[in-house]
Amino acid sequence: MELPKTDLHKDHNLKYKDSYVLNSTADLDPLMERIGDASCVMLGEASHGTHEYYSWRTAITKRLILEKGFSFIAVEGDWPDCYRVNRYIKGFADKDKTSTEILQNFRRWPTWMWANWEIDALVNWLKAYNLDKAVNNRIGFYGLDVYSLWESMEAMETYLRKNDPGAASIVHEAMRCFEAYEKDEEKYARAQYFGDSSCRNEVIRLLTEVRKKTPVYDHDPEAALNIEQNAFIAVNAEKYYSNMVGFGENTWNLRDQHMMDTLFRLTQFHGPDSKAIVWEHNTHIGDARYTDMALHGMHNTGQLARQQFGESSTVLVGFGSYQGSVIAGAQWDAPMEIMEMPAAREGSVEHQLHKESAENKLLIFDSEQESGQDQWSRKKLHRAIGVVYDPKHEKRGNYVPTVLSRRYDAFLYLDQTTALHPMHLKPDGSQMPETYPFTF
């Protein structure tokens, strides 16, 4: 059922395709209609520490699973940690543990991205949903990121020591090569810059061996997928860290290409009718061609997904907010803080939407619009907050010039937002904090 449009069109003469007030999950109906039969839906966020981004993405994710038969969720997280969640929600492992114990395994900074009460609620819902489903119909949860070099090699060695000692010895050789760097990616990066011998041959040999052997890792529904993905991570992480220092290949592109390759591998594993839900920051899911990232030769997963799956099969959903609080760190590896997020800069997307009204809004864009016919077809500043944040820099940074109606297919504007609820900060009282502003 189509919901009534807001008065924004009348009051402000806006010409983008559709705008709707956004108060409850029922107000997502126009988005479900826009998604249609798409097989890949990417859900963004303008920060990694905002409660409402997680809760609204959860609401959309549930509807995609229940109403449109989506197969799995892939997130901007490390594969080994997310795979542990995947095994848990599918009932394959850790049956004696709680969801909270599983999420406590996310130890890499920023831990709050996935070890939070909002994700805990989603994990419990997924586990309950999967309970009476056949093994091949259970919803999966996977990590797309490239950072877990050490963890992926350790996971491979643990598995292969029991199931393929020959391949395990190759993993051990690769791990021994990296031992001198004490699990410190920056040490390895600096060593490569100054011409130290690399470990690239060792990880490539490891991947080659694992790919030859994957047909024999068939005693578990996902063993071959897991071992092969960890081997790909070893190769791509080594390449990523080798290029961290100096003037080599763009590490942003290496990372996003890895995430896109992982997503494609997951769709292949789940079969030709599989449907993917992706959770990443706006800077990854919003098509880079419609930002100034393109001027610097950067691409991202949203752009690559549109190019690989086709624009009709891919729906990119951005998120943004005007003002509130957020979890972030003052610098990399710093303690997490609840920070005040000031009002959006004048002239930005978020400032314009707040000026129109202080209501939460859902914008649906028409890809067939003529260029320049409305304000969202022209480049505007669009807020982007990372895990490292300084509110004092709002006037100089934290914004990406964006053509909103082409960067995304839809946009959720949330006027006032609040900080995420990390597990590693003791919540008020003895109960889990409320994770949704509405019921589902």
TrEMBL record:
Gene3D superfamilies: EreA-like (biosynthetic domain), EreA-like, domain 2. Pfam families: Erythro_esteras. InterPro entries: Emycin_Estase (IPR007815), Hydrolase/PRTase-associated (IPR052036), UCP036794_erythomycin (IPR014622). It comes from the Bacteria. One of its GO terms (biological process) is response to antibiotic. This is Erythromycin esterase family protein. It comes from Dyadobacter flavalbus. The lineage of its organism: Bacteria, Pseudomonadati, Bacteroidota, Cytophagia, Cytophagales.
